[in-house]
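Retro notes, structure queue

What went well: the backlog is down to a handful. What didn't: a couple of records were mislabeled last round, so from now on we paste the full input next to the output in the thread. Example, using VOC domain-containing protein from Lachnellula suecica:
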Amino acid sequence: MPLDHFNIAVPQGKLEDIITFLTTSFEPLGLKEIARPVPTVVGFGEKTPYFWLNVADLKEVDSKSHEAVLKSQHIAFTAATTEEVRQVHAAALKAGATCNGPPGIRAYYHPGYYAAFVVNPVLGINFEVICHDDASR
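Corresponding output:
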């Protein structure tokens, strides 16, 4: 069954920074802010929101534990072409991300698996952009 949407909880002081990183880095894929139903909840997508951020209440969870959970996350976005993978990787690095794997084939997953990985400078999340098969290659 396909995934409809998902959510990440972020600290209040980091919300605008992660919004800026996402809209800057993933613009080549068409990702943009779609909805902000309340000031502490933001939905992203191309046409409808499927990736949500909400402000975490760190009174219930200490900030070190929350930070460890965020850094253990891996989120992958699909690209239509290998060029889009390269564009997102370059945009993310320009936005302050750290390279966690340059654009290239990852044949150990499958022969057409072309991906790049970056660690977000705001929350430490490992983001991947992947093209499973680019017929233009």
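Agreed that this is the format going forward. Reviewer comment attached to the example: The chain has a mean pLDDT of 88.
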